## 1
Amino acid sequence: MYDTITFAAFHPNEIFQTKCFGCLMERYSVTEDGILMYHQERLESVPEEQRPYYGTPEFDKGWSVVGCVKSVPIGDFIVSHHGDVSFIGDSGEYTARFSHGKLERIWQNLKEN
């Protein structure tokens, strides 16, 4: 598993994956000011009648689990991470360096042949 991280000022429409935090499918972001944020959520069960395949033949063929839980935001917290965070997305592989939760720089990881 992995966590996701987004950057407001660096490929702002891309969601990156990272294994540098807890790898619990949690969400992180970096603000325009370079502050690392953690977006805490809890999972909540979705009633069957509100799931996408409810009332269709697929629902009884195993598709009942689709949409069975949803994320409910709890709050956003500043993360005082100190060190490097590697992440990957459609645009490539990168490393971000943080100093006590503040982004210092980002560089692309170039593969050697």
Note: Residues 3-44+71-108 form one domain.
## 2
Amino acid sequence: MSSSAPEASAATGDIAGSGSRPRHPSLVGGHAQYIKAAVEGAIGNVTGSEAWEASAQRDRKEGIESMKAASAVRDPQQSGLGKAEELAGKVVGCEGMEKEGAQSKS
């Protein structure tokens, strides 16, 4: 296991420096980035690695920003998973996901 955290952006699907994909906000990508941050934070806490903890903070912030940006341009009446999204939001503790699921069509 490496002592430094990996550099990738799940929020946009872009590996650092690759520039292979355009940067568009994504709810799924933002959630993936947020989950990645939680894992990195746990690794940082267990190992005492400041690099992992810093990466977790950065990824958490980027994930939240991506989710907010995607939510701002999303029409819940045209997209979304309805009740399933609302329930998933409740399970994982994501108020935004819960709210958008309640607003979206089933």
Note: The helical segments are 27-47, 50-73, 83-92, 95-103.
